[in-house]
Automatic annotation (TrEMBL):
It is a multi-pass membrane protein. This is MFS transporter. Keywords: Cell membrane, Membrane, Transmembrane, Transmembrane helix. Its main location: membrane. It holds the Pfam family MFS_1. It comes from the Bacteria. It is found in: Cell membrane. CDD domains: MFS_MefA_like. Gene3D superfamilies: MFS general substrate transporter like domains (1.20.1250.20). The keyword Cell division does not apply. The chain crosses the membrane at residues 12-36, 42-64, 148-169, 175-197, 218-240, 252-270, 282-302, 308-332, 344-362, 368-394.
Length: 444
C-alpha cells in the first residue's frame, strides 16, 4: 500500500490530508469537551445540533464545489479554504455562548465542504491505474482514521499539560501545514474538456449519475448504515464517559481512539481483501456487523441499566469502527467504476453531499433523542436506521453487477456515431455502461 507514496504529487497531497485531519481530530475532542463545558449533561444535544449544521453545509455546498471550480483554480481554492478553516479554529477557544459555537462550526465546515470533494476528485487523475487507486483509497481511509485514533491519543497526551482550549490551536496549525503542502504540490493537467452547462447543471449531472446507477443507490443506503453507528460514537461518547463512567477529558479521547483503532485495522486489510472478494459482499458484510453491534449495544445498555462499563464500551466501539471502515472505504472504487473521467469531480461531489444527508438524519437523532429520552432510546432509533440502510442496499444493489452491459438504443439511427463505434448484433451492443447523455437510465 505504501508504495504509492513514491508518486510525488500524491505523497504531498496525502501529507496535506494527514496534517489537516490530525488537526480536525484534535478539534473533535475539543469540541466535545467544549460542549460539555457549556451545556453539561445536555452536551449530546449541543453536539448533535453543531454536527447537523455541519451536514447542512456539506449537503448544500459540496455539489457546487466540484462543478464551479475550474481545474486551473483548484490549487488556489484549496489553499484559501485551508486558511479559512485555520482562522475559524483559532476563534473557537474564545466562545462563551452556544450560538457562537454554531456560527463558527458553520464557517469551518463550509470550507471543509468545498475542500473535500475537490481533493477526492484529484486522486483518480493522479493515479489512473485501478490497483494504485484502490491502495490510495485505503491509505486515504487510514488518514481519516487518524481523526478518530491518533488525534484522540495526541489529545489525551496534550490534555495532561494544557486545557482543551489549546487543542484548537493544534487544529489551526494542521490547516496551515496543509495549505503549505498544497502550495508545494504540482497539480495534474486535465486535458479533457469540462462538461458544458452552468455550475448548477453540472452539479445536478453528478446527482443524476449517482441516483440512476444501482450500485450507487446501494452505496447511499450503506452510508445511512455507517452514519447510524458513527453518530452514536461521535455524539454520545462524551456523555457516556463524563456521565455514567465518571471519566475525564483524557478518557473521552481514549474512548474515541478505540473507534479509530477498529477502523484502522480493517482499512489495512481491505486492499488485499477487495482483490479476492466483491465490493458488494464486503460492504454488505460490514453493514451486517454494524447492525449487530448496535443491537448488542442496545441490549447491553438495557441489561446494565445505562451503566455500560469500560470492559463493554471499548470492544463495542472497536467493532463499530471496524464496520464503519468496511462500509465507507470501498465507496471510491464504486464511484470510479460509475462515471466517465470528465464526470468524476461532479460524481464525487454528489457522493459527498448525498452521504451527508444520511449524517444529517443520524446526528440529530443521536443527540436530541439521547438528551430528551435517554441514550437507550437513541440506540434503539439508530439500530432501526442501520437495519433500514442494510435492507435498502441489499435490494438496490444487484448481486450481478458487471461493468460491461448489453443494451440497445432504439431511439438512435443506424448510422449514429455511437452505434458505429460499437459492434451491434441483433440491435444490441456491449460496452462499459455509464450514465451520460446517451445512457439516461440503467438497462433492466
Amino acid at each position: 500500500m505504501l508504495e504509492i507514496l513514491r508518486e510525488r504529487t500524491f505523497r504531498r497531497l496525502f501529507g496535506a490530508q494527514v496534517v489537516a485531519l490530525v488537526g480536525t481530530g484534535l478539534a473533535t475532542v475539543a469540541l466535545a469537551l467544549l460542549a460539555y463545558d457549556l451545556a453539561g449533561a445536555q452536551a449530546g444535544s449541543v453536539l448533535g445540533t453543531a454536527l447537523a449544521i455541519k451536514m447542512v453545509v456539506y449537503v448544500t455546498l459540496a455539489p457546487l464545489a466540484g462543478a464551479t471550480v475550474p481545474p486551473r483554480l483548484r490549487k488556489a481554492v484549496l489553499i484559501g479554504l485551508d486558511l479559512v478553516r485555520a482562522a475559524a479554529a483559532l476563534m473557537l477557544p474564545f466562545v462563551t455562548e452556544i450560538w457562537q459555537v454554531y456560527v463558527l462550526i458553520a464557517l469551518l465546515q463550509s470550507a471543509s465542504a468545498c475542500f473535500t470533494p475537490l481533493f477526492q476528485s484529484l486522486i483518480p487523475e493522479i493515479l489512473p491505474e485501478e490497483r494504485d487507486y484502490t491502495r490510495a483509497l485505503s491509505l486515504s481511509r487510514l488518514a481519516y482514521d487518524l481523526e478518530s485514533l491518533l488525534s484522540p491519543a495526541i489529545a489525551a497526551a496534550l490534555l495532561t499539560m494544557i486545557s482543551f482550549h489549546g487543542l484548537f490551536a493544534g487544529t489551526s496549525a494542521g490547516f496551515i501545514a496543509s495549505a503549505l503542502l498544497v502550495m508545494a504540490t504540482t497539480f495534474p493537467v486535465v486535458h479533457a474538456a469540462r462538461a458544458a452547462g452552468s455550475p448548477y447543471a453540472r452539479a445536478l449531472r453528478g446527482m443524476r449519475i449517482y441516483l440512476h446507477t444501482p450500485r450507487l443507490r446501494g452505496l447511499l443506503a450503506l452510508n445511512l448504515c455507517a452514519a447510524a453507528g458513527g453518530a452514536m460514537v461521535f455524539v454520545n461518547t462524551v456523555v457516556i464517559v463524563r456521565g455514567p463512567l465518571q471519566g475525564g477529558e483524557r478518557e473521552v479521547a481514549w474512548a474515541l481512539a478505540a473507534f479509530g483503532a477498529g477502523s484502522m485495522a480493517v482499512a489495512l486489510l481491505l486492499p488485499k481483501l477487495l482483490e479476492r472478494i466483491q465490493d458488494r459482499s464486503v460492504m454488505l458484510g460490514a453493514a451486517s456487523v454494524m447492525v449487530g453491534a448496535l443491537f448488542a449495544a442496545t441490549g447491553l445498555w438495557a441489561a446494565t441499566q445505562g451503566r455500560l462499563g469500560w470492559a463493554l464500551l471499548i470492544p463495542l466501539w472497536c467493532v463499530l469502527g471496524a464496520a464503519y471502515a468496511g462500509l465507507v472505504t470501498p465507496g471510491g472504487r464504486l464511484l470510479r467504476r460509475s462515471a466517465q473521467a470528465d464526470d468524476l469531480p461532479f460524481l464525487f461531489a454528489a457522493q459527498f453531499s448525498l452521504s451527508h444527508v444520511c449524517w444529517l438524519l443520524a446526528y440529530p437523532l443521536a443527540g436530541w433523542v439521547g438528551a430528551a429520552i435517554g441514550l437507550g432510546s437513541a440506540l434503539v432509533a439508530l439500530s432501526c436506521v442501520a437495519v433500514l440502510g442494510l435492507f435498502v442496499a441489499w435490494r438496490a444493489w444487484p448481486c450481478h453487477d458487471p461493468d460491461v452491459v448489453e443494451h440497445s438504443h432504439p431511439e438512435l439511427s443506424d448510422d449514429h456515431p455511437h452505434l458505429v463505434d460499437h459492434q451491434v448484433l441483433e440491435g444490441k451492443h456491449m460496452h462499459p455502461y455509464r450514465i451520460d447523455e446517451l445512457h439516461g437510465r440503467w438497462p433492466q
